[in-house]
Amino acid sequence: MTRALRVRINLKDDVKTIERKLSQGIAEQFNNKLRLSVDKIKRDLKALVRDLLKVSPEIQSLRNGELRGAFGIPKEIDPTLEIIEAIVASVDVEFKLVRGGRGGFSGGLAIEIQPKDLSNLLNLPNAKVVTEKGTALPWLKWLLTLGDKIIITEFEVEYKDGSGRSGLASMSEGGTFRVNPSFSGTEENNFITRAFKGSENRISRIIRRHMG
Predict the structure, then answer these.
(1) I need a surface site. Which of 21, 49, 139, 201 has the fewest CB within 10 A?
(2) How many CA atoms lie within 13 A of 156 on its CB side?
(3) Per residue in 102-130, pLDDT tens?
């Protein structure tokens, strides 16, 4: 009958010191992973943002649908390309040093998409259209911020192929004009925020894939 091997370990540090060293070791591993992964995560998030925006109903309608006609966007202009790329360019992933403590861990990644003030979009060259009378119409601001408010009184949009600057519709006297509630937005709830709704799992998968 073999005799059992007995091992005795003497811990020279107290429990609090051991916990602190373990937390520091885990935090260091996280930090090393994050430093190596942040650029790849940012790259893939930009690609995801671009894909989500391309299929949004508002972007599709601005290309060749109701919104293009309603806003009188000239048929030779596609404003969606610069809108999408401006939003993609706003994607930022910031590495925040992970620190371990008695309450757990803090730090990690901070992801930002699209400034709340919308300045990167509202200043785009094609964010406005100019009427035949020289009046500038800030259609993108209307779409993103005015919700269902009436914008123009005594005029309404008449949809007809081949009419107006867009080749889809023109304004006629009578009625009122507002953004179709199916597409309208506010600063807190617009086609950009809606495009990302439900995409949390896809974002998490990107992060997990690069963190190994």
Answers:
(1) 201
(2) 6
(3) 667 778 889 999 999 999 999 999 999 99
Please give the helix or strand (H or E) that residue 42 lies within, else none: helix 15-54
SS3 letters for 147-188?
CCCCCEEEEEEEECCCCCCCCCEEEEEEEEECCCCCCCCCCC
Q: Which residues are within 8 A (CB) of 112 and not within 5 positions of it... i.e. 6 or more apart?
A: 90, 91, 92, 93, 94
Q: How far is CA 140 from the centre of its chain?
A: 16
CA distance 166 to 69: 6
What tokens appear for 5 in the block? 């091997």
- Listing DSSP states for 50-100 in one string gives HHHHHTSHHHHHHHHSHHHHHHT--TT--THHHHHHHHHHT-EEEEEEEEE
pTM to 2 decimal places = 0.84
The helix/strand/coil state of 212 is: coil
pLDDT digits (tens, 9 = 90+) for 60-84: 999 999 999 999 999 999 999 999 9
Q: Using an 8 Å Cβ cutoff, are 67 and 112 in contact? A: no
Contact 128, 140 (CB under 8 A): yes
pLDDT tens digits along 161-183: 999 999 999 989 989 999 999 99
